[in-house]
């Protein structure tokens, strides 16, 4: 939610019509221009999207020619209640997305999730089964769950699925009504932390070598060892095609 204050009252005011583009979505127009001008792929965090009278928490992926490659609407909404710590109901503002997002880019096949999506291993497993090399999760874990779960979940998703996981978090602002944990991170397919930050504004530059995926999957051949006779993950979207 990088184009708006992180507050329920602001989301609707700053929501953009991504499908209409242009002046109706200045944030995505800027991302498109930058990706084309620099010849890079951009996973553009998330912004509030308005469409058909509903609002979504949406991440856009732009290719190196400025084209919109994918649009992921957050599938799992952040509705939690930890008494004395934090209560937040994202579903009071947003509608949940209905489509998992795997996108082919110049830098590999990427599975997209947003924040709370990272908690759901089934989504990450589906992305891995669809051939993703890298999972990207823009997010803003808070000061209660962040210290306990943010790194843990990234390393778990990477280790369980033997792929790379990259996260981009909001920097910490104690003056905000929602204080983020921070700690943007890149995790390798063995669960190793390849690069990370603290909680201030920062930039990470790190190398990703997809050849390590085959190496780690050879070291630990989990896909061959899974007991499909006892349990299976069902990809509903593919099943219905």
Automatic annotation (TrEMBL):
GO cellular component terms listed in the entry, alphabetical order: mitochondrion
Gene3D superfamilies associated with the record? Carbon-nitrogen hydrolase
Checking SUPFAM superfamilies in the record gives: Carbon-nitrogen hydrolase
One Gene Ontology term of the molecular function aspect = omega-amidase activity
Query: Where's the CN hydrolase domain?
Result: 1-210
A Pfam short name? CN_hydrolase
Keyword terms: Hydrolase
The UniProt entry, under InterPro entries, shows: C-N_Hydrolase, C-N_Hydrolase_sf, Nit1/2_C-N_Hydrolase
Protein name, per record: Omega-amidase, chloroplastic isoform X2
Query: Which species is listed as the source?
Result: Raphanus sativus (Radish)
Q: Which gene encodes it?
A: LOC108816950
């Amino acid at each position: 939610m990088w184009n708006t204050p992180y507050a329920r009252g602001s989301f609707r005011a700053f929501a953009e019509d991504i499908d209409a583009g242009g002046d109706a979505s200045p944030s995505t127009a800027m991302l498109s221009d930058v990706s084309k001008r620099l010849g890079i792929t951009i996973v553009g965090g998330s912004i509030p999207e308005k469409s058909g009278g509903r609002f979504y928490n949406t991440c856009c992926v732009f290719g190196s020619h400025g084209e919109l490659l994918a649009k992921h609407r957050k599938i799992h909404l952040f509705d939690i209640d930890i008494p004395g710590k934090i209560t937040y109901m994202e579903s009071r503002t947003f509608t949940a997305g209905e489509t998992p997002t795997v996108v082919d880019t110049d830098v590999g096949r990427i599975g997209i999730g947003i924040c709370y999506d990272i908690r759901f291993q089934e989504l990450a497993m589906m992305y891995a089964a669809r051939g993703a090399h890298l999972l990207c999760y823009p997010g803003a874990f808070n000061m209660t769950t962040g210290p306990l779960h943010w790194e843990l979940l990234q390393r778990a998703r990477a280790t369980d699925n033997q792929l790379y996981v990259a996260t981009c978090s909001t920097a910490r602002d104690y003056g905000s009504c929602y204080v983020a944990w921070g700690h943007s991170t890149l995790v390798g397919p063995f669960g190793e932390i390849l690069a990370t930050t603290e909680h201030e504004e920062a930039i990470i530059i790190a190398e990703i070598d997809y050849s390590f995926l085959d190496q780690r999957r050879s070291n630990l051949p989990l896909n061959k060892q899974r007991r499909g006779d006892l349990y299976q993950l069902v990809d509903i979207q593919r099943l219905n095609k």
